[in-house]
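Student: Hello, beginner here. Can you help me understand the protein record under this note? Any guidance would be welcome.
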Amino acid sequence: MIHALYRYALRGLLAVFQRVRRLVWSITRPDVHGAHAIALTPAGRIILVRLSYAQGWHLPGGGRKSRESATQNVLRELREEIGMVAHDDPFLARELQERSQYRLDHAAIFIIRNVAYRPNRWSIEIEEVIEADLESLPPDLSRRALGWIESLRAELGAPD
């Protein structure tokens, strides 16, 4: 019971923090560059993360640090978010520009196969890591992640 209350309170605080951060970004960083991964296990299952500050399942990834390439960015995010320990070469599948309420996002979407990982025991950002079949994605997958996956079905070798 206490664990559930702690988790609920932490989720609320992080959601507020994220909203404030986005508001600050709208002024200080109107253009944001980042990278996300369609990370596939050797069995071909997609790795998804549940963030502490957002609803549903998401692709691992995040913002790029200064002087960091998109490839370096996505590999760092996978190490931080899922504990990636091995992988094939990243394949840059798409580069997108998406306007959100606060900014213009420049997102590099990578497909990375044969990802081996050991989820971090505790993370303030990542609540949970799961694997899912591409044919049966979770119903609460974020619309953004679903759109990216659907647009890359041919490259993934998954049925439409």
In short: Residues 68 and 78 are 14 Å apart (CA to CA).
